[in-house]
Design brief:
Helices cover 84% and strands 0% of the residues. The protein is mainly α. The longest helix is centred in the C-terminal third of the chain and has 54 residues.
Length: 200
């Protein structure tokens, strides 16, 4: 480990764990929130063509074959073709809630990490200052090297906590915005499908 990490004291370890967890969650969500996985344009185009030509059984089949959230939500509407609009709407909304939970899965953990990282840094600051006061009490102010060690611990942990927290907040905002955009798009497509399949 670099010397500055060791100088930060034991609090640097939970801060390191937070940084690894935040990066892992961000990369996993970036992969799982790709457009081809959430709302593939090719699938939507094919589905719309099938419904417009009244090929409902084929439309149901391609919804079941596609594992994307868009397909799962639209399948909830297509599967009730010819039913009352209220029932189709309820089915789509229920499917939408389930998919929204899946899309948002683990993103909340980023917010938690962003909140606790500065607190861990503050904890390190407190322990570092306690170390300084302990040196002053036992050795006086003449031992500059021992004093510097406590001050370094206080400052390094504060900086490390902020270094983890700031990009984590940005990552959290980016992912929540991305999910919100997808859900808005899917809602628009679901309303269109509902108009096509619901009973007149």
């Amino acid at each position: 480990m670099p010397q500055w990490f060791m100088d930060g004291g034991p609090v640097m370890w939970p801060i390191l764990v937070c940084s690894i967890a935040a990066l892992s969650i961000f990369l996993e969500k970036l992969y799982s929130l790709r457009r081809e996985k959430v709302a593939p344009p090719s699938f939507l185009k094919t589905l719309q063509e099938l419904i417009s030509h009244k090929k409902i059984s084929e439309a149901k089949a391609i919804c079941q074959q596609n594992a994307s959230p868009l397909a799962n939500i639209l399948h909830a509407g297509v599967s009730l073709h010819g039913k009352k609009r209220e029932r189709v709407k309820e089915n789509i909304e229920e499917a939408g809630k389930k998919e929204a939970l899946q899309l948002n899965r683990n993103i909340g953990a980023l917010a938690t990490i962003a909140h606790i990282s500065p607190l861990l840094g503050l904890l390190g600051t407190v322990t570092g200052m306690l170390r300084v006061f302990h040196v002053i009490t036992t050795q006086g102010v003449g031992n500059a090297q021992s004093l510097a060690g406590g001050i370094a611990e206080a400052l390094i942990t504060t900086i490390a906590g902020l270094i983890v927290a700031i990009p984590t907040v940005v990552a959290y905002r980016y992912l929540t915005s991305k999910v919100k955009t997808y859900l808005t798009e899917i809602e628009e497509h679901a309303l269109q499908i509902m108009d096509w399949v619901a009973e007149e």
